[in-house]
Design brief:
Elements (H helix, E strand, L loop, with lengths): L1 H20 L4 H11 L7 E5 L8 H10 L4 E4 L10 H13 L3 E10 L3 H14 L3 E6 L4 H11 L2 E4 L15 H8 L6 E6 H6 L9 H8 L3 E6 L1 E3 L4 E3 L8 H10 L5 E4 L9 H18 L1
Parallel strand pairs: 1-2, 1-10, 2-3, 3-4, 4-5, 5-6, 6-7, 7-10
Antiparallel strand pairs: 8-9
Helix pairs in contact: 5-6, 7-9, 9-10, 10-11
């Protein structure tokens, strides 16, 4: 009842606000309300900066802002691990200028060497990220347990698709969950829907939505891709087999709060129009699931 009354009062406020600003300003007012509110149904939608790997950091951030993507998972080219404090400060200044917030960084390899791992966590702390997308060695988890607890930064294990005629060591939620279930609750997955689709090339049919449900609260990030296994290329969402509404519905079911990063590996020299089409598919999918 309280929620219904709040919803009614908000609608009444919006209608009154539109009337107050006049018909000529109606569209600007509504756009401002949408931006201040939520254009993506409660999800944080951004990009993996690898999508813009042909550009320097500033040019990549400009394209993200133009696409109305205000969150990013940065990769090594745009945020080198060996950056000095001054370089990190300059990076964060650019991010603020273009209204893009770094929430994740990767994909990063981790070993059992705690001193080396700590340097990565210190870098993540300086960036302010919440998650590392990661490809950790199986014997790294005891070290990562301690560092996740200390820094409160999650490890999202990233599945890669087939490596030649073999699957990647972390190719599915089943494999990841089996490895992490007895470790720190901040060690989980950053599932990549494109690589999950690619697993079918070796006969492993993995439904991205079901993989998300299996990981449950250990979903810390998503790389959102569609892939065409016949042509061996990423495609605009909906041009392959990815069920975007199904993925978003599964994320809602598991109460996902992390970053959904659009990662588009095709057409690297000019990905903007393709990414824009992907953004529109996400918006339409959110409308479908309500």
């Amino acid at each position: 009842m309280i929620a219904d009354r709040f919803s009614f009062d908000r609608r009444r406020f919006l209608h009154a606000g539109v009337a107050a600003v006049g018909l000529s300003s109606m569209s600007n007012f509504l756009r401002a309300e949408e931006k201040k509110g939520d254009a993506f149904g409660g999800f944080k939608l951004g990009a993996q900066s690898y999508t813009f790997r042909e550009f320097d950091l500033e040019a990549a951030l400009k394209r993200m802002k133009d696409l109305d993507l205000h969150y990013v998972e940065l990769f090594q080219k745009h945020a080198p691990l060996n950056s000095s404090p001054a370089q990190i400060a300059a990076l964060l200044k650019l991010c603020k200028e273009y209204e893009v917030t770094p929430l994740a960084w990767g994909v990063q390899h981790f070993t059992k060497n705690t001193d080396t791992n700590r340097k990565i966590f210190e870098f993540g702390k300086a960036l302010g990220v919440k998650m590392f997308s990661a490809d950790p060695d199986p014997d790294s988890f005891d070290s990562l347990d301690k560092l996740c607890e200390e820094y409160k930064i999650a490890i999202g294990i990233h599945p890669h698709g087939p490596q030649g005629k073999k699957e990647h060591r972390w190719y599915s939620a089943q494999v990841i969950l089996h490895a992490v279930k007895d470790h720190h609750p901040l060690i989980g997955s950053c599932l990549d829907t494109g690589h999950l689709i690619r697993a079918a090339q070796l006969g492993d049919k993995l439904d991205p939505a079901e993989q998300i449900r299996l990981m449950g609260p250990r979903n810390f990030g998503i790389h959102l891709k569609d892939h065409d296994n016949l042509r061996h290329t990423d495609v605009i969402f909906g041009k392959g087999v990815l069920d975007v509404p199904g993925v978003l519905k599964a994320l809602r079911e598991v109460k996902f709060t992390g970053l959904i990063s659009i990662e588009y590996e095709a057409n690297p020299k000019d990905p903007v129009q393709d990414v824009l089409a992907c953004v529109q598919v996400v918006k339409e999918s959110i409308k479908k699931i309500g």
